[in-house]
Every structure is written in structure tokens, then in C-alpha cells.
């Protein structure tokens, strides 16, 4: 059983981080508010999970002003895309029982 778990990435164990990465893989860039709405998360919860993914180098953050309003956008990095793909492949192998 242990060999099946080797490819799993602990960064994507939580439902929130799995959701964040899934949404960012499909959408090149999303604002904080768009992520919050799509994932139905609170500001604090989303910010905590985004920070953890940023610290891993899986998500990049861009802060700017649009008019007078602050706008923060998030993008999955190349490393994040690869790590997420590897994680999904490990999950698929686990489900199929062919690790």
C-alpha cells in the first residue's frame, strides 16, 4: 500500500488546495474574489491556503491597482502545474491499482 502513496503531494492533500489548483489549471489567472466565489471559501481560509501554495512555489501572486481598487491575481506556476499533474497521475495510478 505504501508504494501507491509515494507520488502523492502533501501540498494537495486538503480539499481547498486541490480546488485552488484545479481552478487555476483551467483558468490561466484568477482574482482573489473570483477564487473565493468559485470555491465558496472565506477570505481568511482562502488566503491561508494560497499563501501555503505560494510558499511551495506552486502559485504566483500579482498585486496591482485597477483604478483606485487593489486587485490581487493568482496564477499556477510551471512548477505548480507539473506538481499538480504528477499528483493527479499518482491518484489515477492509485485508483487503478497500478503504481
UniProtKB/TrEMBL annotation:
GO biological processes: regulation of DNA-templated transcription
Species annotation: Larkinella knui
Q: Where in this chain does the record put each Winged helix DNA-binding domain?
A: 17-95
Q: What is this protein called?
A: Transcriptional regulator
Q: Which Pfam families does this UniProt record tie to the protein? A: HTH_34 (PF13601)
Q: Per its UniProt entry, which superkingdom is the organism in?
A: Bacteria
Q: Which residues form the signal peptide?
A: none
